[in-house]
Design a protein that fits this description.
The protein is α/β, with parallel strands linked by helices. Helix content is about 45%, strand content about 15%. It has one domain: Rossmann fold (3-Layer(aba) Sandwich). The relative contact order is 0.14.
């Protein structure tokens, strides 16, 4: 499936791909597209299937796939559609669920990934968040979406408006796969350089668990946002942008990664 996308910068510059989280869309990255393209990068932000301007709800619901592997195939198909050569390396910046998609992409196509920059990567879904989502994605979500006309008129952050407007079926399908996700089994397999960022007050991606992922990684850096929850770009925007510029601009060293791997073995 070809995804809707936003682009900024010169197509000949190094490529940076932005992936949003669930119940969100690519517009959350518009400021970052301007920021990073100004540093000399070509930036693309995709609306994942079922989100934003990418809609796959014309088919009967039973035939709509929203699993992580479908998202990975969508990324590959869209990059190919845009004429991005398969040997061209890409840096992937993500938020929340977007990190799960990026990790799977890096697993399947390691030769295409320069580095991963996951903000608020969920290590795994833990209680009480798992219990809260189990309840929210049932009747409460149906009631919320039955009153969208009213809610759209309220003064909510764009992130929250996007959340309540994302199709309930899409969110329920994503939850089926997220509830069994375990980053602790995935991260140690990746040779890619990773820049982790976590918010101290994040209930979805607890900073202590994200730090543990950093310790398990072959080659990574870790940044703690002391006054943030699950939306670093909104809670501490200036710090987030400084951190992002640093992570994107750093040169990767494949020989260093190999040395770290040999040492840990």
């Amino acid at each position: 499936m070809i995804l809707n996308y936003y682009e900024k910068g010169n197509k000949e510059d190094p490529l940076v791909l932005f992936i949003h989280g669930s119940a969100s869309d690519a517009t959350v990255w518009l400021k970052e597209l301007n920021l990073i393209s100004a540093q000399g990068f070509y930036c693309l932000a995709f609306d994942l299937r079922g989100h934003g301007e990418t809609r796959l709800m014309a088919q009967p619901k039973a035939h709509v796939k929203i699993d992580i592997h479908s998202h990975v195939h969508d990324l590959k198909d869209t990059l190919n559609h845009l004429g991005i050569p398969e040997d061209r390396k890409v840096t992937i910046v993500t938020h929340s669920f977007g990190g799960l998609v990026a990790i799977n992409f890096a697993e399947h196509y390691p030769e295409r990934v320069e580095k991963l920059i996951p903000a608020c990567l969920p290590p795994k879904l833990i209680f009480p968040m798992s219990h809260f989502l189990e309840i929210l994605l049932g009747k409460p979500l149906e009631i919320i979406q039955a009153n969208l006309d009213f809610l759209q008129k309220t003064k909510l952050r764009s992130r929250y408006k996007s959340s309540i407007m994302t199709n309930a079926h899409v969110l329920q399908e994503i939850y089926k796969h997220v509830k069994t996700w375990n980053s602790f089994k995935k991260i140690p397999r990746l040779k890619t350089k990773i820049y982790f960022a976590a918010g101290r007050f994040d209930m979805v991606a607890p900073c202590t668990l994200v730090y543990r992922l950093h310790e398990l990684s072959l080659n990574s850096e870790y940044e703690l946002f002391k006054w943030s929850g699950h939306a670093l770009m909104e809670d501490e925007p200036e710090k987030f942008q400084r951190w992002l510029v640093h992570a994107v601009s750093q040169k990767t060293n494949n020989s260093t990664t190999e040395q770290i791997q040999e040492h840990k073995q």
